[in-house]
Amino acid sequence: MYKVKTLNSIAPVGLDNLEKTKYIVSDEIDAPDAVLVRSANMLKYEFNPELLCIARAGAGTNNIPVDQCGEQGIVVFNTPGANAGAVKELVLCALLLSSRDIIGGIDWVRTIAEKGDEIGALVEKGKAAFVGPELFGKTLGVIGLGAVGAKIAHDAVALGMTVYGYDPYLSVEAAWRISSNVIHAKDIETIYKNCDYITIHVPYLESTHHLIDGCAMAMMKSGVRIINLARAELVCDDDIVEAIESGKVACYVTDFPNAKTARSPKVIAIPHLGASTPESEDNCAVMAAMEIVDYLENGNITNS
Ligand code: MLT
After folding, report:
1. Where would you tag: which of 93, 104, 173, 232 has the fewest CB atoms within 10 A of its CB?
2. Which atom of ligand 1 is nearest to the CA of 60?
3. Which controlled-vocabulary keywords does the entry list (predicted)?
4. Quick one: CA dihedral 55, 57, 59, 60, positive or negative?
């Protein structure tokens, strides 16, 4: 009987599937055959010799020492696409929040209410203070047209945006399948130069470290709004803070808050909520559990 260790709280529907297959599943197992992890940091994890695979309930595998696992014959799975719907919806939300000062307006109303003042009488002041542009007719650049980026590109067209998509690994034909209305950018500079909003959906690799830095932002339109719900290190924090202070960047939405960026009033910092929906947690848990079972029972390797 196989033993599966959970390193995070994993949606019960995934664990039920494992238990139905008669696996022992617990967070207290000492020598597991498989590990099921969400975001827990495994970079310093001591691998027991029995460990055969690690399934990451999510897309990115930056919390797992993938090279070391390869050397030790431990297969690492992820669940690409399983949380894409949830991330896409948060990006759409980020687009709107970066434009319309809804957060500023909510804070303002709350402050008035806490002071016990009459809100109705002050509404006119709020209307004038919290003005922001519409998305309709603006340009959006989507960097990376994988599971998440493709969905955003598709939906942003429906919002009336002109969408540029950039993905060096995607053919023009494949980009067309996402939406014939998405403009296939030949290079990333096309995105930088043309877009009012830029959202990043590439994995974090050595080659994508600080993809958005001062040089990239220098090419962008003044007042650009940047959204990063992919990985913290894709954007250079020092450079973004500088670009915000100079007015080059009107708003930065990040799912990876830190002390440097989160204090800025032009930064919307979210505590890594991209995949935080019950639907996405269920999808990821089910897919990860299936990958473990299919590997341990049948030797099949999917999404590794
Ligand atoms: C992912 O890698 O899938 C995302 O960062 C979402 C998450 O795991 O919470």
Report:
1. 173
2. 2
3. NAD, Oxidoreductase
4. negative
CATH architecture of 3-82+278-298: 3-Layer(aba) Sandwich (3.40)
Going by C-alpha positions, the residue among 212, 243, 236, 250 that lies closest to residue 95 is: 250
CATH architecture of 84-269: 3-Layer(aba) Sandwich (3.40)
Tokens 């090419």 locate to: 219
Q: Is the pLDDT of residue 140 over 90?
A: yes
pLDDT at site 121: 87
Residue-wise DSSP of 206-239: GGGTTSBSHHHHHHSPTTEEEEE-S-GGGB-HHH
Complex ipTM over 0.95 = no
Q: What is the pTM of this model?
A: 0.94
Average pLDDT of the chain to the nearest whole number: 95
